[in-house]
Structure formats: structure tokens, C-alpha cells
Amino acid sequence: MSKAVIVIPARYGSSRLPGKPLLDIVGKPMIQHVYERALQVAGVAEVWVATDDPRVEQAVQAFGGKAIMTRNDHESGTDRLVEVARSDA
To answer: Pick from 88, 77, 28: which is nearest to 51 by CA?
Structure first.
């Protein structure tokens, strides 16, 4: 049986809300809240955060999550997910 993996695209440099993944929400960065909810999905073996920013990578690692660094030239979160899917992550 295949394992299910959730990959969360997290871009720090958003034009509408820069730094969104690291915004503090009730004492935790937003990306941690999303990560923790993803872990609750039935049948999920792993959760990864795909980002192009070392600040997001460090925040994810600080709470024990797995972050995958991606290129910074993606036009969308979907493009970032495709990079991860094609990698050996």
C-alpha cells in the first residue's frame, strides 16, 4: 500500500501578505497550525512544507517538521508542488 504525503506550499514573499507563513497566531506561526492539522488527516504518513525561504525552513524545523527547499522562480504553489513531486524528497 502506498503512503500518503501532504505537501504544503509556503511562500514567504507573497505580494498580498508578505511573511504569511510566519505570522503569529495564538503563539505559533501560521505554518505550524497548518502542519499540525495536516498531520491529523487519516492515512497520512508524512507532511512536508515546500518553501523557497530559509526563514520558513527554520521555523518548520524548529517545531520538528520537515521542510523542503525549492527554487524561488515558481509562478504558483502548484509549480512548487510539481518540483517536490519530481524530486527525490
So the answer is: 77
Q: What is the CATH number of the domain that holds 30?
A: 3.90.550.10
For residue range 56-70, what is the model confidence (pLDDT) as tens digits? 999 999 999 999 999
Domain that residue 19 falls in: 4-86
What letter would DSSP give residue 20? G
- What does the pLDDT read at residue 25? 97
Give the whole-angstrom CA distance, residue 61 versus residue 70: 15
**What total of structural domains would you count in the chain?**
1
The pLDDT of residue 3: 83
Full-prediction pTM beyond 0.85?
yes
What is the amino acid identity at position 23?
Answer: L
